[in-house]
Amino acid sequence: MKKKKISLLLALTITTGLFSGCSKNFVLTGDKIVKQQSDHLIVQGDIETKEININSKAAGKITAIKVAEGDSIKNGQVLITIDNSSLVAKEAQSKAQIDAATEQMKAAEAAKSAAQAQLQKAQNGARPEEIDEAKSQYDLAKSTYDRINALYSKGYAAKEDLDKAQTSMDVAQNQYNVAKDGARSEDIAALQAQVSQADATIQGYQAQIKQAEGGQDEVQSYIADTTITAPADGIVNQLNVEVGELVSTGMPLLVMTNTVAPWVECNVKETDLSKVKLDEEVPVKLSAYPNQKFKGKIVRINKDADFAVKRATNDNGDFDILSYGVKVELTDMNKPLHAGMTAFVDFGKK
Q1: For the chain, which residues score pLDDT lower than 70?
Q2: Architecture of the domain delimited by 2-50+260-349
Q3: Where do the CATH 1.10.287 domains begin and end in the chain?
Q4: How far apart are CA 160 and CA 168, in angstroms?
Q5: What is the pLDDT of residue 317?
Q6: pTM of structure
Q7: Closest to 255 measured CA to CA, from 47, 62, 6, 80
Q8: Which CATH class is domain 87-223?
Q9: Judging by DSSP bridges, how do beta strands 27-29 and 40-55 pair with one another?
Q10: Which residues are 28's β-sheet partners?
Q11: Sign of dihedral through CA atoms 135, 140, 146, 149?
Q12: What CA–CA distance (Å, rounded) separates 281 from 74?
């Protein structure tokens, strides 16, 4: 019995030293209650961290595992890679289809521009200087024909030369008449049909490009899914796969602990709950770092009781005292922590 008393006294002495800013004796409340000997409400709790399960988004063979269990990892760090050679080939095929359709669309656009220019010219008619140029060409061709015809009638020119001169004159006259009188309605209709056909061809290539780009985007997203990266800073707790193993979509690859935003979970008895204020900053001590004090912020006070703590009859009669869960986020933590570590939260004077 004497040994038990000595052990209890020693435990209380060690715990008392954790908070240098408080009086020499203090009270642990919540699920671990000792005799009240302090004017501060100090509660023992446990460090909690968020556990993240990382699953495969793509099926394939594991080509590399770049971390081991227990490794510290950073947000965005590559953890595992999955074979994506077939996907890369599909991406190249989609790109080739896009390039080919783009070149064909450019050719169709050039044809449309040329047809539009001819149509506009036909609809607007020739400019005065173009009419004058066409008349000059006709006059020259007629003069040439008259000269060769005169020589032919005297036997000084061949029939072939006369025929060529006749043809040149007819062509020049037709061009002059078109420039002077404008294009015929059927000519304009034919040019309009060429423009419409070019439009349809362009739209067809645009649809092909859009479809190929959609396929390319999909393949690229699949390729991205074959590189597994860390979603946050943390520690690798468990690896579930090995290099060379075939994995399916949704298969668990590894489990990690997010160490960026650890918090303390503690329980406060209802008779002390009025001292706990939401969003209040509180000092926190950790058994792992006994010579340092950290900052915390109260971010949650449970609405429902977690459990009842039975007190001595001379303290509260025949009633149970309820305990409420409180979450305290550590706001300036720069030390490595592990889930389950012991923490002490000082909620201030009672």
Answers
A1: 1-38, 183, 307-319
A2: Beta Barrel (2.40)
A3: 87-223
A4: 13
A5: 56
A6: 0.58
A7: 80
A8: mainly alpha
A9: parallel
A10: 42
A11: negative
A12: 28
- Angstrom CA distances, 194 to 184, 200, 281, stand at 16, 10, 77
As to burial, measured by CB atoms within 10 angstroms (0-12 exposed, 13-18 middle, 19+ buried), residue 332 is: exposed
Q: Tokens 């060379």 label which residue?
A: 244
Rg (CA), the chain: 45
Sign (positive/negative) of CA torsion 30, 32, 38, 43? negative
Question: Whose CA is closest to 19, among 285, 298, 276?
Answer: 285
3-state secondary structure of 276: coil
Provide the pLDDT for residue 120: 81
Query: Which residues contact residue 340 at a Cβ distance below 8 angstroms, ignoring those fewer than 6 apart?
Result: 46, 47
pLDDT in tens, 85-137: 999 999 999 999 999 999 999 988 998 888 888 788 777 777 888 888 989 99
> Where are the domain boundaries for CATH 2.40.30.170 in the chain?
2-50+260-349
> Which of 62, 81, 68 is CA-nearest to residue 242?
62
